[in-house]
Amino acid sequence: MNGRIMAGSIVITSLIAGVTMYYFQVYGFYDKVAYQPGDIRLTVLVTGAPEPMLVENFTGIDANSSPLRFRGCFTTPSSQAMLTETYVTYPKATPLTAPDWFACFDAAAIGAALETGEAIAFLGQENIEYGVDRVIAVFGDGRAYAWHQLNNCGQRRYDGTDVGPACPAREGGG
After folding, report:
1. Beta carbons of 60 and 124 less than 8 angstroms apart
2. What is the rounded distance in angstroms from the CA atom of residue 72 to the CA atom of residue 33?
């Protein structure tokens, strides 16, 4: 009888722990982003500096637990033609999935549109956090999406290889 009680308590504790971990991964760490004009930027071809993008109807999420958890959905009145003539494109854009409850951001659909050319990816801001770029994908109809993605320095830093002299110095060393 004591064995059944012990086994039952282990199963119940495991279930509670599993549900709690699931909640924190999918819901608990995310906060809605309060958009301020100028928060979404694009990097200018000529200067290499980011400047504010025209953004309407923004909704976004982010979490302090990882610099890669930022996602945003919005519209822009700027055309793809004007954007490609003015701003830096991002050739290896790979949208990261968002929680199911953040329904406006469909990483698979955005990724497929980037592959077919229906959407074009731009460098929002390089090293928004060390080794992490903000990427903006814009569709021809004005729909736009933003996410954070590891750049070359970030990939090298996090996989443990030497970042080398091409990468900026990291604040606080290491």
Report:
1. no
2. 8
